[in-house]
Write a structure and sequence with these properties.
This protein is mostly helical. It folds into 2 domains: 139 residues, Globin-like (Orthogonal Bundle); 49 residues. 64% of the residues lie in helices and 0% in strands. It has 10 helices and no strands. It starts with 8 loop residues before the first helix and ends in an 8-residue tail after the last helix.
């Protein structure tokens, strides 16, 4: 049936394109396996987002995948605990793989979907999650080590990452001179001082002078 006679055909076609991208990233011709992995990724990530963030993510999905995304969703019970072991256990169960296989498969699906989402959308999703989960979703080499993370170390890493982000933001903001700023404008120096103070407060610079 052509697109001209089937009003659902465009939605089906787009969903197949996304599924094909996941299958290709997984290096498999088994569309059922790819479908399970895609569904597992959507549900496992969805359950760890707040209601507004989940709605924002779903808006990026093709119509048919949006239905899959909301299947079984209970907004009153989200977000669920966001530790790495429970994340991998849920994904592995839904995808039909072992927790060990889930570590690498999560990153593969993330890579495939990154090319399908609007630019910056994946970054927005990752920003809602703890650092340890970001590593797992990105499929980094640290993923296995983070399956049983030290909570203190993880929280310290998050704190330092936040401080670094704030410092860079302060520096960039200070360097965005207005159009009529003169060459003697000291905005850049003040921004550098502010960034230095932020980093110093978190022990991210080697000098206190």
């Amino acid at each position: 049936m052509s697109h001209h006679t089937d009003p659902l055909a465009p939605s089906v076609h787009t969903a197949h394109e996304w599924l094909a991208a996941v299958a290709q990233a997984m290096d498999t011709e088994d569309r059922f396996l790819a479908h399970r992995a895609l569904r597992a990724w959507l549900h496992t990530v969805r359950d760890r987002l707040g209601v507004n963030a989940a709605a924002h993510l779903s808006a990026q999905l093709p119509e048919l995948l949006r239905g899959m995304f909301y299947e079984g969703w209970m907004p009153a019970h989200v977000p669920v605990p966001r530790d790495v072991p429970s994340f991998l256990a849920q994904f592995a169960h839904a995808a039909g793989v072992t927790p060990e296989e889930a570590v690498s498969l999560v990153g593969v699906v993330t890579d495939a979907l990154a090319d399908q989402f609007s630019p910056g959308q994946l970054d927005h999703v990752l920003a809602q999650l703890p650092v340890a989960l970001r590593f797992v979703l990105l499929g980094t080499d640290l993923a296995a080590a983070l399956t049983q993370p030290d909570r203190t170390q993880t929280e310290d890493f998050e704190r330092r990452l936040t401080a670094l982000t704030e410092a860079v933001t302060a520096l960039v903001h200070g360097l965005e001179f207005p159009a009529d700023a003169g060459p003697d404008d000291h905005g850049g120096f003040s921004a550098a001082q502010q960034a230095h103070r932020i980093l110093l407060a978190q022990g991210l610079t080697g000098s206190e002078h």
